[in-house]
Amino acid sequence: MKEVLGSEISEPPLVTSYQALLQNNDFHSHLKTESIVVQEIDLPVINLYNIQSENREKRRLCAEEIVKAASEWGFFQVLNHGISLQLLEEIKREQVKLFRLPFEKKVSSGILNDSYRWGNPTAVSVDQFSWSEAFHVPLDKISDEDCNHGEFSSLRELMKNLGMAMSNLGRALADVLVQNLGYSCGNFPKNCDEKTCFLRLNRYPPCPFSRPETGAACGLVSHTDSDYLTILYQDHVGGLQVMKDSRWVAVRPNRNALIVNIGDLFQVSIFFISSFIYFTFCSLHLQFVRFQLIYIIYILTPQSSVYCKFKNLNLGWVLNLGHFSPTKCKANPSLIKLVHYWATW
């Protein structure tokens, strides 16, 4: 279970942190609940080759595929996305080296602008259980001197290249969705820049409490993404599950594809201007057994001026979204504002 470099342990102290929860009967009940064999499926696959075609009809058909997948699934895969597999694999190799560092160094040495996080040390219930570690880096910080530890300068350069490519892809996809609603190109993405968008390097360590014979596993808690769009590259092991028609389905890995998730903020924004055209309740659920998982994630998020933060009025059921609640503005009751809960995982 422990990965050691010399005499130093690289794994985060997940077992120690969750010791009280692991001894709780609720945890074992949770494992039994998770012991469900799920169907493996292929998400809708969209070839983006024609998205910038000079042929208007080809562009229209490609856009229709994107809109259909966003409406019916909230998730889809894209091919010919403009990001080389070589770049993704190079980052993954550097990412493996990064996570093999001693835990204390990852926590205290400020690597990648002090962006390291692990598990959920403040978890008080099984629902907050998270068996993971990650580096969560704002795009505008990748070029900072604080981000340039000599041993990982090559990773920083790769991340800069990937950040630019992912940003172009995210804006292109958002433009298609917004234009389909009759709004001008760039209406949403213009509020997203390097200060608000992120690259996240995720690792899900092997969990000793997983039970492969029953399908029981510990991973990332079920959640929705609270951004505009999330673009994800998963490794060959898989492990990603999404909710479709009120049941979990496992996403079959596709080495050549990127996965796109329509986030809460995009869906809520669409709700207020177009009656839920894209609204489908989708969640992410990572469930795995004895294998290490490596994910590369790009997060397209707007400036904070686009949304407002208020106290929780516990009205999330109105939108059926876990991270948002509508509330009236006292100064002008005709205005609707959003309560936004930023995810902590």
UniProtKB/TrEMBL annotation:
Keywords: Iron, Membrane, Metal-binding, Oxidoreductase, Transmembrane, Transmembrane helix. Its cofactor is L-ascorbate. The chain crosses the membrane at residues 265-286. Residues 195-345 form the Fe2OG dioxygenase domain. InterPro entries: DIOX_N, IPNS-like_FE2OG_OXY, IPNS-like_sf, Iron_ascorbate_oxido_reductase, Oxoglu/Fe-dep_dioxygenase_dom. One of its GO terms (molecular function) is metal ion binding. It comes from the Eukaryota. PANTHER family: 2-OXOGLUTARATE (2OG) AND FE(II)-DEPENDENT OXYGENASE SUPERFAMILY PROTEIN-RELATED. Belongs to the iron/ascorbate-dependent oxidoreductase family. This is Fe2OG dioxygenase domain-containing protein. The lineage of its organism: Eukaryota, Viridiplantae, Streptophyta, Embryophyta, Tracheophyta.
